[in-house]
Amino acid sequence: MYKTYPFTLEKLPYAYDALEGVIDARTMEIHHGKHHQAYVDNLNKALVEKEELQKITLDELLLSEIDVVKNNAGGVWNHDFFWKCMTGPVDGGHIGEKLTGELEKAFGGVEGFMEKFEAAALSRFGSGWAWLVKDKAGRLEVISTSNQDNPLREGKTPILALDVWEHAYYLKYQNKRAEYVKAWWEVANWDFVETNL
Question: Do the domain assignments include residue 36?
C-alpha cells in the first residue's frame, strides 16, 4: 500500500451485507464507515502541520515514533488490509495448492495453522489483531499485535489479518470472541492470502 496524504477511506470490495451469516451488515457499516473513517480523519488531522510526513507513504508512517501518527496510520493500514482478507458471499472458501503446501511446511497442515491462528486471536488481551506473516527469512508464522500495531514495524510481511477489536464482532457475537473467530473462516479470502505469499 503506497498511499500518501491526504488519505481517503477505501471503498469495500463487496457490499456491507455480503458477509451476512458471519458478520452482519450493520456491524460492517459501523466498522467501515465510522471506525475506519475515524482513523483516516485522525491521521489526516495529525499530519496537517507535519509537511515532512505528508510526503511519505502509509507504510512508512507505520514506523513513526509519534504515537498519534503511528496509531492512526496502523488503523488505516490494518483495516485496508483486513477488508481484502474477506470475501462474500459466505461459502467457506477454498485454499489453493500453493498455500496448502506452505501451511503444511510451517504448521503441519491447514488445521495446524488454523489452531495456531485461532489461539493467537483468542489470547490477545483487549483489542488487537491476529496475523499470518512472513518473517525476513521468508518463513510463515502466526503472531498477534495489540491495538493498531502492525507487523511491518517488526520487519514482517502481513499475509492474513483478523481484527479482534470488539467493534468487529460485538453486535452479533457480544462477548463471544471464540464464536466470531471460528465463524470467520467462512469469509476468509484465500485467493487474496495466496497472492500475498
Answer: yes
